[in-house]
Amino acid sequence: MAILPEYEQAKQVFETYNINVPRGTFEKLENYAEFLVNYNQHVNLTAITDGKEILEKHFLDSFLLQQLTSEYFPESAKLLDIGSGAGFPAVPVALIRPDLQITLLDSLQKRIIFLEKLRELLNCNYHAIHGRAEDFAKNPEYRENFDIVTARAVANLPVLAEYSLPYVKIGGYWIAMKGPNEEITPALEAIQVLGGKLIKSIPYQLSNGDARILYLVKKISPCPTKYPRKIAQIKQKPL
């Protein structure tokens, strides 16, 4: 049973934002949505299960991440998505940018199992790993090794900065996806301490009128080795 709106209707939504989604890619989105809704009955992955809302709030929002910051997504770039959950924004991005080397990180094993099954279903190119962001950032294989780090609805910005910036290589970017009411100002000191610099804020609206904002931070100097701290320290005393 089809979950999403018909292709022509969805195509109009995407084309409003100059996003081209071929029919073959849309069929993968349909499979994604159906698999997500069915899986969600047993494992809590998303509160959004209506097809139109999945299209707008999950798929369109994920595509817009890449569309609005495309100049910062070089060919074959290494991307890390922190707190991937049900795969947003990284899996839809992987569908339209198969050249990217994408890693999804989540702290719950049941979500990683979902993401691995989803990868097989969609025949999609990404790597899903189970672990906490503050732990993997100490690993030389991951630390300051990504061109792009993304995160959506994981934590408030000062905390999220400490989770994210240790992974970004010098000259790379951290892109935080937020609602319109979360200001970047409280995180500016943390961003500076962690080696970053706010480049721009990009406000936008989804097709249903919901407001969103992308905060684009460039990594300009190495992150001090003591960061990220343990989770209790991060939450008790944010930078």
Brief characterization of the structure:
The chain has 239 residues and is of the alpha/beta class.
Describe this structure in words.
The model has no long low-confidence stretch (mean pLDDT 94). It contains nine helices and seven strands, in the order αααβαβαβαβαβαββα. The protein has helices spanning 7-16, 23-39, 51-68, 90-96, 109-122, 133-136, 157-164, 188-193, 231-236, and strands spanning 78-82, 101-106, 127-130, 146-152, 168-178, 196-205, 211-219. The longest helix is centred in the N-terminal third of the chain and has 18 residues, at 51-68. It is an alpha/beta fold and 239 residues long. Helix content is 38%, strand content 22%. Strand 1 (78-82), helix 4 (90-96) and strand 2 (101-106) form a beta-alpha-beta unit. The N and C termini lie far apart (48 Å). It has a seven-stranded mixed beta sheet, with helices on both faces. It has a single domain, classed as Rossmann fold.
